[in-house]
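Page 42, continued from yesterday. The earlier attempt failed because a stray header line got pasted into the input along with the sequence. Redoing it now with the clean sequence only.
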Amino acid sequence: MVEPSLGIDRALYAMLEYAYIEQGKRVILKVPRDIAGINAAVFPLVDKDGLSEVANKITGMLLDENFIIDYNPSGSIGRRYARADEIGIPICITVDYQTLQDGTVTLRDLYSWRQIRTKLRASQPFYAIYLCKKIGFDQMGTAFTLLKET
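This time it went through. Structure tokens are written below.
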């Protein structure tokens, strides 16, 4: 039997072997953010009180910029974060009641599980910069507020 040494199979298996991590009882797929199958997830905290409308607006804005977005309004926020970790979504955007008051969202990083609160404006170029690894998660909050409105 001849086994080819070229092809996508080996690269895919190597990437999955490298990216698959178990932390306690949780499974995490830490694929590099520039090759992740889904670029970001948008989660309304609850599916009522106008939160889903704001989350849909953010989702539409990111889809217009050709990002691959997962929109998930069901279940607890912790469960949604766990599902996003399992499929390797690099960043989660959570819309909550504070979003309605001051226009900020919570961004959660897959790689560190850290969260920051940041303004909603100027998100399209910001996510492109983040996903292309030109800035780190620590710089995300300041990058949002420094970018001009588009």
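Notes: The domain at 8-146 is CATH 3.40.50.800 (Rossmann fold).
Reminder to self: strip header lines before submitting.
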